[in-house]
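Predict structure. Input: Nuclear transport factor 2 family protein, 125 residues.
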Amino acid sequence: MQPKDIVAQFIADIHAQRFDEAKDLLVEEGFEYVGPNMRFLNRDDMLAYQFGMAAIQKDLIVRQLSADGEHVFAILDYRTNFEPIGDVRLAVWFRVGNDKIHTVEAFYNAAVVENMLGGNLPSAG
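Output follows.
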């Protein structure tokens, strides 16, 4: 599969809350997620966080998905049914190699998530 197809499948799996399938698209060793207010150094921790957010997820809409070699860029609307957060626009940069996602870097307004979690943000060091 092409990197863009792998990322599209990953996003579809997260949207459908198929976390085991999404996990299979991430490298087992050396995975890294970096966001504006959290960092995960393994896929299990990142997916556990995603699983926790599934309760408030109303929709995940892909507005744009483009690729430049192993780099895939997505613009997403993460719609929630949790009023304090509302809808969050995400820009996400994926690095893909050997048919697996190695790095996910997300850019979004972290203040709404930080306020919801009361400053208790997950982190892996």
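The mean pLDDT is 89.
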